[in-house]
Amino acid sequence: MSRPFFIGVAGGSSSGKTTISARLVELTGEDHLSRIELDSYYLDRTDEPLEQRRLANYDHPDAFDWALLNDHLAALANGASVQVPIYDYADHNRSGETRTVTPNRIVVVDGILVLYDRALRDRFDLKIFVDTAADVRLIRRLERDVAERGRTVESVIEQYLTTVKPAHERFIEPSKRYADVIIPEGGLNRPAIDVLLARVREVATTPNDG
């Protein structure tokens, strides 16, 4: 089986990474494109009490299981399916369940730090950074975390100021220099998505012996 074409989609929290990745899946088809979220690879914190898990810095590189993610991408590159952990945001931990990801022609990995880890970065055939203004990202994060994750406005703002913003400035924004393509305004940038989709469709229909 030919090696998948790997795409990494990075960017700040609520920049529009998920919108772009989901749009690619929708328009390309699940039989051609598999998607992996970096959030699935948060470290297993089963041995920590809930309160300690709540206080962890989930925007720092140390929060992720890079070895497992790299192992999974290596397996996909060799034509094997993998069992990706399912993360429970309410419990701040892996749920204990997994989902099967198959080595389709295209594999998209999206997350805040997918261009940070060098070993992971070197696996990507196309590296994308979604560049969205900080105020827009904060508003989106507030709306999402309050509506979908049961958070209070105060807790979201506190987390943003203490961990999200510092981590963005220290780790995420500098990783932009590794991107092949920078997409301003994320999922709202229709022309950029159309160009990206054209490239993805080209890859999906072109045989690869790599």
From TrEMBL:
<comment type="pathway">
    <text>Pyrimidine metabolism; UMP biosynthesis via salvage pathway; UMP from uridine: step 1/1.</text>
</comment>
<dbReference type="GO" id="GO:0044211">
    <property type="term" value="P:CTP salvage"/>
</dbReference>
<dbReference type="InterPro" id="IPR026008">
    <property type="entry name" value="Uridine_kinase"/>
</dbReference>
<dbReference type="GO" id="GO:0043771">
    <property type="term" value="F:cytidine kinase activity"/>
</dbReference>
<keyword id="KW-0418">Kinase</keyword>
<dbReference type="InterPro" id="IPR027417">
    <property type="entry name" value="P-loop_NTPase"/>
</dbReference>
<dbReference type="GO" id="GO:0005737">
    <property type="term" value="C:cytoplasm"/>
</dbReference>
<feature type="domain" description="Phosphoribulokinase/uridine kinase">
    <location>
        <begin position="6"/>
        <end position="187"/>
    </location>
</feature>
<dbReference type="GO" id="GO:0004849">
    <property type="term" value="F:uridine kinase activity"/>
</dbReference>
<dbReference type="GO" id="GO:0044206">
    <property type="term" value="P:UMP salvage"/>
</dbReference>
<keyword id="KW-0963">Cytoplasm</keyword>
<keyword id="KW-0547">Nucleotide-binding</keyword>
<protein>
    <recommendedName>
        <fullName>Uridine kinase</fullName>
        <ecNumber>2.7.1.48</ecNumber>
    </recommendedName>
</protein>
<dbReference type="Pfam" id="PF00485">
    <property type="entry name" value="PRK"/>
</dbReference>
<comment type="pathway">
    <text>Pyrimidine metabolism; CTP biosynthesis via salvage pathway; CTP from cytidine: step 1/3.</text>
</comment>
<dbReference type="InterPro" id="IPR006083">
    <property type="entry name" value="PRK/URK"/>
</dbReference>
<comment type="similarity">
    <text>Belongs to the uridine kinase family.</text>
</comment>
<dbReference type="InterPro" id="IPR000764">
    <property type="entry name" value="Uridine_kinase-like"/>
</dbReference>
<keyword id="KW-0067">ATP-binding</keyword>
<dbReference type="GO" id="GO:0005524">
    <property type="term" value="F:ATP binding"/>
</dbReference>
<keyword id="KW-0808">Transferase</keyword>
